[in-house]
Specification:
It comes from Formosa algae. 4% of the residues lie in helices and 43% in strands.
């Protein structure tokens, strides 16, 4: 019994903590016992001391443990190649730590007066402190830093680099330091105190509950689609600058608390750049701050606002542009002409909201950063009859044309199109229209009330609804779920809404996703919850282009839906559209579940006799797989599979609402020969005759006149397309016979 008692005592003593000192007598291998005094490896119960050895420890691809670690001056510790170091309690160092593709897990606090350099690694601790002594700097690149409580940095240095950070609070106390947050995310549960310069680049994302920038002369600069999200309060004694594509998001309705005296001032600077500027182009602007002067935008007198209720001698109130130099109204859109012949292709603008100290009155002058609920009245005319044209030009107008209002995103961040439309579905309909700067001024149709030598084309407006955009992604001409900061855009007021009703903007429309970027004035749509088809419509000779969207989505119906459907904006440009109760829609949402028996009437507007093509630009959802998409041409009695190839046809100028049907079944005979025959096309234009096939190969072609004489013959072609321009056009009927390699023959009369 006595021996057992002594054994238990020795057993208890065996788990008591003890210390070991690194000597480095043999090499740098942490797992070499001859490098330790005493000669054994540290355990989770070991207090490790690294003083002034001749060699410094390297944890290379192994797992190491300690109860605590203390490193003196002039030492170092390296973790690399998948190595892991777990410290149960505190880790204190006056020497550098280098981590490359490794892990440092500290159960207590991590304290250093020297450098920590980490790449592609993980660092975890309860608290982290970089003290104000020694030569310390924090360089964390492509590394995750997880701190349960606080990060406190007192050290002064040129530039510290931060990577993925999770912490309760973070404090940068020394104003002589500069921090770079590069292509990474930072999540702070409580407060972010920044008494140093902070620069966000390459799409970095910082989210915090509260933000304080209180030291004199220190600034935050956000670049390259970076985002700063603050859940509650922002306190400023210096400035936040948002360069092009960057965002500031506030999720609560709290105003910024800003301070100023005769030495410094706090505020927000928003720099925005419009690209793809053409000769004599206009940019559609909206201010993200209060008090912006329209006259500060460009050195030009061509600044306008849109008045939807202009009264004229005609029966319709079509609206008109009115020159203005007013202070920009929050939530309102304006256009400014910035391009002239030979002008630069980009144009930049700065909006500033700043507290300024007025020494004469001993008070602050405050310009507000837009945040929280914002409302602006929208208006419409009272014309409610059918479409007509009896003004100075031949331009057709409808009862929709006096409902347009030019509004704008009022925030220094993007807003969701879908949330905006849902919030305002009782006020507006037909989505939003954004100017794309796509085409130079030219010989386009006049507006209804005026007759100009040159005009801009309405086809440069991209339409967005909750279903998507009229033009498919990716850019150029991309679809978007968001309206970028500073963007002015058109909306159409509903006929059944009272003129003067408020259009509402809220913080709920602003995006909080770290993966989102406030890039450009339109961007790619990444939604996958819808099944959609984008159709393109092109003219061969004029090279004109138009497109439309048909999609199946939850909440949409086969009738007209305010947030899913959009009417065409201009009846005087080449267009393709679907029809709902004879109303032309550039975007149409249809109900779920999708049925392949569904049929969608399509219409087109053509301006000249030409060779036209209807094809698929993009599909998603159910249409990405094996679901066929057919175009039925009622004039030619043809059903063509658009999944195989685009459909080509000749059309005179005019509006044709009874020619095409989009469908998902071929109801003729449902055999391969029928599909093959329908893919063989013969067409004639003013300049050539063309035969083409999508599913086979053309072997021969013969052209006869009406007397049966052979005018042209070619055999052994072995091609999918033949274009004949050798024959002189006579505007006479000809017979064209094309034979496929499988023996299928098609004979067609053409006028050439």
């Amino acid at each position: 019994m006595k021996r057992l008692y002594l054994f238990l005592i020795f057993g208890i003593l065996s788990i008591t903590a003890f210390g070991q000192t690194w000597t480095g007598n043999s090499d740098t291998n942490w797992n070499n016992t001859s490098n330790w005094s005493p000669n054994s490896l540290p355990t989770i119960n070991t207090d490790v001391v690294i003083n002034y050895p001749s060699r410094y420890p390297i944890i290379d691809g192994i797992n190491a443990v300690a109860k605590s670690i203390t490193i003196a001056h002039n030492g170092s510790l390296t973790i690399q190649n998948g190595g892991e170091l777990t410290v149960q309690n505190d880790f204190s160092t006056n020497s550098p730590i280098y981590i490359s593709d490794g892990e440092l897990i500290v159960g207590g606090d991590l304290y250093t007066t020297n450098n920590i350099e980490a790449d592609n690694s993980t660092i975890e601790a309860n608290n982290f402190e970089l003290a104000n002594s020694g030569n310390g700097a924090l360089i964390i690149d492509q590394t995750t830093l997880k701190i349960t409580e606080d990060i406190n940095v007192y050290k002064s240095f040129d530039t510290g680099v931060l990577s993925n950070i999770y912490a309760n609070n973070i404090n940068f106390y020394n104003s002589n330091s500069s921090w770079l947050i590069d292509e990474t995310n930072v999540y702070i549960s409580n407060d972010f105190y920044a008494g140093a310069d902070v620069n966000l680049v390459n799409g970095s994302y910082v989210q915090t509950k509260n933000l304080e920038l209180l030291d004199n002369g220190r600034t935050w600069v956000l670049n390259d689609t970076s985002t700063l999200t603050v859940e509650e309060e922002i306190n400023l004694r210096n400035k936040i600058t948002l360069n092009d594509n960057a965002s500031l998001i506030q999720t609560s309705d709290t105003d910024l608390n800003t301070y100023a005296n005769n030495y410094w001032s706090g505020g927000l600077i928003v720099n925005r750049t419009a690209s793809n500027i053409k000769n004599y182009d206009y940019v559609y602007w909206s201010s993200p701050v209060e008090g912006s002067e329209l006259t500060d935008i460009a050195n030009t007198s061509h600044r306008y606002k849109w008045i939807p209720t202009t009264t004229t001698e005609y029966t319709s109130n079509f609206g008109n542009w009115e020159e203005t130099s007013e202070q920009m109204t929050i939530g309102k859109g304006y256009i400014v002409r910035v391009g002239t012949s030979g002008a630069a292709s980009t144009f930049s603008q700065t909006f500033t909201a700043e507290i300024k100290y007025d020494s004469d009155s001993n008070s602050n002058k405050f310009f507000k950063i837009n945040n929280g609920p914002i409302s602006i009245p929208v208006y419409r005319g009272d014309y409610n009859s059918g479409s007509y044209s009896n003004g100075p030009s031949a331009t057709i107008v409808s009862n929709e044309d006096d409902n347009w209002n030019l509004v704008g995103n009022p925030y220094p961040s993007a807003i969701s199109v879908e949330t905006f439309l849902t919030e305002n579905e009782n006020v507006i309909e037909g989505g939003v229209r954004i100017w794309t700067h796509g085409t130079e001024i030219g010989d386009y149709d006049d507006p209804f009330y005026q007759d100009f030598v040159q005009n801009y084309t309405a086809s440069d407006y991209i339409t967005y609804t909750s279903l998507g955009s009229s033009v498919p992604p990716p850019p150029p001409g991309s679809g978007s779920d968001y309206i970028a900061s500073c963007q002015g855009f058109f909306v159409s007021m509903r006929h059944d809404a009272t003129s003067g009703t408020n259009l509402n903007f809220t913080n709920a429309m602003r995006t909080y996703d770290a993966d989102y970027t406030n890039s450009e004035f339109y961007r790619t749509d990444t939604s996958t919850q819808k099944s959609r088809i984008w159709l393109s419509f092109t003219a061969d000779e004029t090279k004109s282009y138009n497109s439309m969207l048909i999609g199946y989505a939850q909440g949409a119906t086969n009738d007209k839906d305010p947030i899913y459907d959009a009417v065409i904006m201009d009846h005087n440009i080449m267009s393709i559209y679907s029809l709902v109760n004879e109303e032309p829609l550039v975007i149409q949402g249809r109900s779920l579940p999708f049925l392949d028996t569904d049929k969608v009437p399509l219409g087109i507007i053509t301006l000249t006799k030409d060779l036209y093509t209807i094809g698929i630009s993009k599909t998603d959802g159910a249409f990405e797989n094996n679901q066929d998409i057919y175009l039925e041409d009622l004039y030619e009695n043809t059903i063509h599979n658009l999944k195989d190839s685009a459909y080509e046809f000749i059309s005179e100028a005019g509006t044709f609402n009874d020619r095409f049907i989009l469908r998902y079944q071929d109801s003729t005979l449902s055999v391969d020969d029928v599909i093959t025959d329908s893919s063989l096309k013969i067409i004639a234009t003013e300049n050539f005759i063309k035969a083409s096939t999508a599913s086979n190969t053309i072997n021969s072609i013969i052209v006869y006149d009406i007397l049966g004489r052979v005018l042209y013959q070619a055999n052994g072609l072995n091609t999918t397309q033949v274009k004949l321009d050798q024959l002189a056009p006579t505007q006479s009927p000809l017979i064209v016979k094309a034979t496929l390699i499988n023996g299928t023959t098609k004979t067609q009369k053409v006028i050439y």
